[in-house]
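Progress against Task 2.4 (sequence-to-structure conversion) is shown through the following example record, which the project officer requested during the mid-term review.
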Amino acid sequence: FRLHGSAAEEPHILLECDSSALDSLQKHLKLYKIRRKVAISPCPELSLWAVIPGEQPADASSLPKCAHQALLLTPDPRAEVMGWRLIAKKGANLSEIIPGSQVGDVQDYHRHRYKQGIPEGVKDLPPGVALPLESNLAFMNGISFTKGCYIGQELTARTHHMGVIRKRLLPVSFPQPLPAPGVPEGSEILTEAGKRAGKFRAGGGELGIALLRLAHVNEPLCIRLGGDTVRLSASTPQWWPKAAAK
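Structure tokens generated for the chain above:
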């Protein structure tokens, strides 16, 4: 997020990241600043909130906010269904920033994004394993096809322009209660005929996200856990571009 209002101001950029990747991200950024006058430091005094829309999403400009308490209140850049990102100082009164709001817990947030098929963090997007296009980052303002010179740029651009993407991250749901302790991350997903359809990435309760071959999305799917067969179904998110699932 860009915090400075104009080019005349000192540039201030706020990066949001998975907390488990904080140290590695700082080391990576410091490796490339190369004698530039750039200060890179964490902001433990700030707290991050997701403002999830109700049944009738409102425009961000209609959100009441207290400028003194909210450092940033902006639409989530990934997808409209994710609402807004709110960054405020720890201890800020959220009921004053967004009157009438209800405070949920982090599991409410994860359930919402799994239902929408929005990946986030190192569990859903394992570093060195997840490919940007298969992870739908092109749908979420996560890839630039005009900016060159980044690792994997040639492969990503070529795959995009050829339009052949056989696997994608998709929301999945389990119609029946799961055996304890749930479905392990990385579990192989099979079709009824026993063909490999993909892998389960992560989830919570009866919802999750999985990397699946698009050819098998509409087929009955299952995961074999010991002696149990756990059935699941996949769906194509409504917020995707119309031709994305082809």
